[in-house]
């Protein structure tokens, strides 16, 4: 009962603050995203897939709630399905020799980004302010590589005794049906933002680090009978970052135009590898996997304060 009273007391305080304000904003984004997943046998790399989504476009909506100096923000965006880049797949059958190599057009099948943030504004002299930040971020994307050109120099494809390089005279062109990637990246961040206000606009910069990032991805190599699935899981501790530059122009007290440029990246992180045929399997292999990502994002939005 005491806990219930405390919750209602907090809610009553928040909603009774005279400075409480709400704002909503439609948002459009351009994103350049890169995902790299690798398969290792010990320290020896067997395979590397590079997913370069160089021109992803997104659209969504966001909302802010501000009570005095406490600000809560949330944004949800959907990827616009379209061709978005190039995918590369490399295999090493013999140490030091890349035997198989393919490249294909990359298409965005589906994607959703959800971002939530809480920050508190401390006013400083000369219209500066510092805002400690806590954030939650979830990125889910489905990509598919199609129109694939593949050259194989390994003995399994050439029928020869030895393995040869993919670009040697012994390599053969092999048809590939396609490769899918489903990736979900869940992260928590904390950091700080510094902001400078002017009469009609503002500038800001923030840096955040993630104490915990969970990455779950599935590579599906398509085939006549369903293909092969490779399932990867990684956990990165204090290994992912977000750097963000923000700006805005105040048209009047209710309307503003805003531009954000951000970079979100996580270097290579090792984790478990599972595989299965014709279905997603939980068959742990002796090999390990790794995953790395980088996301460059430009957001443009018009904000209306209710």
Structural class assignment: mainly beta
Helix count equals 2
Instruction: Report how far the terminal alpha carbons are from each other.
Output: 35 Å
Low-pLDDT residue intervals, each spanning 5 or more residues: none
Shape: elongated
Q: Proportion of β residues? A: over 45%
Assembly state: single chain
State the total count of DSSP E strands: 14
Radius of gyration: 24 Å
| Helical proportion, percent range | under 10%
Largest sheet: 14 strands, antiparallel
SSE arrangement, N to C: HEEEEEEEHEEEEEEE
Average pLDDT: 91
Fold and architecture overview:
The chain has 306 residues and is mainly beta. It contains 2 helices and 14 strands, in the order αβββββββαβββββββ. The protein has helices at 2-16, 155-158; strands at 21-41, 44-67, 70-79, 82-94, 97-120, 122-123, 128-152, 172-174, 179-197, 201-221, 228-236, 240-250, 255-277, 283-305. Strands 1, 2, 3, 4, 5, 6, 7, 8, 9, 10, 11, 12, 13 and 14 form a 14-stranded antiparallel β-sheet that branches. The two termini are 35 Å apart.
Question: How are the secondary structure elements laid out?
Answer:
Layout: H1 2-16, E1 21-41, E2 44-67, E3 70-79, E4 82-94, E5 97-120, E6 122-123, E7 128-152, H2 155-158, E8 172-174, E9 179-197, E10 201-221, E11 228-236, E12 240-250, E13 255-277, E14 283-305
Antiparallel strand pairs: 1-2, 1-14, 2-3, 2-4, 3-5, 4-5, 5-7, 6-7, 7-8, 7-9, 9-10, 10-11, 10-12, 11-13, 12-13, 13-14
């Amino acid at each position: 009962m005491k806990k219930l009273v405390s919750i209602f007391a907090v809610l009553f305080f928040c909603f009774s603050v005279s400075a409480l304000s709400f704002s909503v904003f439609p948002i459009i984004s351009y994103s350049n995203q890169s995902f790299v997943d690798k398969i290792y046998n010990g320290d020896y790399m067997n395979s590397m897939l590079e997913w370069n989504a160089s021109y992803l476009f997104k659209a969504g909506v966001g909302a802010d709630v501000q009570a005095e100096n406490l600000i809560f923000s949330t944004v949800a965006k959907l990827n616009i399905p379209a061709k978005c880049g190039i995918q590369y797949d490399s295999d090493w059958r013999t140490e030091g020799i890349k035997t198989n190599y393919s490249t294909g057009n990359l298409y965005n099948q589906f994607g959703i980004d959800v971002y939530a943030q809480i920050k508190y504004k401390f006013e400083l002299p000369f219209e500066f302010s510092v805002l400690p930040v806590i954030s939650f971020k979830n990125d889910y994307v489905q990509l598919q590589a199609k129109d694939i050109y593949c050259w194989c120099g390994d003995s399994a494809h050439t029928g020869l005794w030895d393995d040869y390089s993919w670009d040697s005279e012994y390599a053969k062109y092999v048809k590939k049906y396609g490769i899918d990637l489903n990736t979900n990246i869940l992260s928590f961040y904390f950091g700080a933002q510094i902001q400078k206000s002017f009469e009609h606009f503002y500038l800001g910069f923030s840096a955040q680090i993630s104490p915990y990032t969970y990455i779950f991805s599935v590579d599906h190599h398509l085939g006549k009978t369903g293909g092969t699935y490779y399932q990867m899981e990684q956990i990165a501790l204090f290994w992912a970052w977000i750097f963000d530059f923000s700006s805005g122009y105040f048209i009047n007290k209710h309307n503003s135009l805003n531009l954000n440029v951000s970079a979100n990246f996580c270097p290579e992180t090792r984790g478990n590898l599972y595989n299965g045929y014709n279905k997603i399997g939980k068959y742990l292999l002796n090999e390990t996997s790794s995953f790395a990502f980088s996301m460059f994002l430009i957001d443009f939005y018009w904000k209306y304060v209710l």
